[in-house]
Amino acid sequence: MASSEFWQRLSASVASSADWEAGLTGNFARGARGTVKLWMTLDILTVIGAATLATMYELHTGPVEGAKGLWHGTLFSNSSRWILLGLLCGFIFALVITSKRLNLYFPTRLTSFLHEQRLSLQACLTSGLLLTGALFLVHAYDIPRSIVLITVALVAVSLGVRRLIYRVLLYRRFDRGVGTRNVLIVGTGPEAHALRHHLESIRHLGFTFKGFIELPDCASRFATPSTDIAGSFGDLFQTARKQFIDEIFFTTPCERGIVQDAVEEARARGIGLRVIPDMYDGLAWNSPIEYVGQFPTIPLHYGDVPELGLFFKRIFDIVFSTLALILLSPVIFAIAIAIKLDSPGPIFYSSDRIGKKGVVFSCLKFRTMVRDADKRRAELMHMNERDGVLFKLTNDPRITRLGRLLRKFSLDELPQFINVLKGDMSVVGPRPPIGSEVKMYNLNHLRRLDVMPGITGLWQVQARQDPSFASYISLDVHYIENWSLWLDFKIIMRTIGVVFGGTGS
After folding, report:
1. Per-residue model confidence as pLDDT tens digits over 452-481
2. Domain 180-303: what homologous superfamily?
3. Cα–Cα dist 252/239, whole Å
4. Helix, strand, or coil here: 362?
5. Residues 222, 190: contact at Cβ < 8 Å?
6. Domain ranges of the chain
7. Residue 444: is it exposed, middle or buried by C-beta count within 10 angstroms (0-12/13-18/19+)?
8. pTM of the predicted model, to two decimals?
9. Which residues contact 44 (CB under 8 A, 6 or more apart)?
């Protein structure tokens, strides 16, 4: 497969209706604002780093000596120093504005790999030409021109390499089925089956087929197995909620009003919606085609997915968990020995939990109960102290003496950092429920399964002793709707206080 096919994503578009355009633009802006700021910040840091390296190389100075020389005016004259700093700020400003105009800060609007590299190089050269022109106009002859050229070259290479690495890591995850977008296809005709085959045959596109939606009065000559039918059009969005759907594709002609209603509902639920252009001639006259691989579509609405933010959340999870396991290894080793001496049974306890989008995984903990604790749970259900589907006993007779101490300080959850490294969990997020709890959820409760479960979360630091299931759900939903890396950091800081306060149970 050609490289252009592997990386291909065309620019997104807006719908023809003015109301749709305003809603889509505002929705996309809200979802992408944090991503844009992060990409801008990375570009600024890249320019500063490139300028520093170019100066060190050309003037044969070290970072500390160079910084002192620049500050005291010995590296350049005082006037040239301020001119150089001003030109550097101007170059940064020009690069950011040019990159933004070329849509390089919107990962959800990715073009092909080669085209993105061309746009990145274009932004660097345009900004570099403005920089050299300004340098010529101010007559700063004692500023070596080689520093400017090396800086521009380093920025161009660094931006290209950084964007390449981001794409490679992202699409490798797609190839493994991690972080993909779940898809429903409306219709069962030839176009629907062709689209399904296209999405399943090219894994790096990042889509996972979840089923067809049947339309009334639309007979198809294609035989579709009943196992591939996810539901009917009347319960489209109920099915989408149950299947954790991120994107809906319309492949069968419908009345304009039906599609408009579907777009409004998709917007309210944060689900992306696309149509096949040949089937909807006139629905979005001004919308350019966006290719999903080689399949042409018209995007009428984008789901809110902070892709870059989640990418950096994953990097943070890996770094934080690795450091935690290394630094706490003596504690982990001591707890393992203590558990073995305290009561018969294994050191670790593994239970099936429900993760992001309903995926089942094995959640690790230090064993805090007797060996047959799971079998005795049914005998204790009448003593449940929690509201709704949760189960909790203050004086659970199944807990061992050491187990009570471990739970008090949340030390039993330390092995879950291994789950974080495996990609099953995050450091911060809603707690992973067991299957019996999820079976009792209604559709609104499934909202908490839209994100990666966490070792700690908003409920753990704010209402851990609250028995209300409604409070449990509302805090998780609040976290999901207001998520940011800064919120994760604040929850981690508060978790440290909770652990040392011994408020666990």
Report:
1. 999 998 888 886 666 677 777 888 888 988
2. NAD(P)-binding Rossmann-like Domain (3.40.50.720)
3. 18
4. strand
5. yes
6. 18-175, 180-303, 308-501
7. exposed
8. 0.68
9. 92, 96
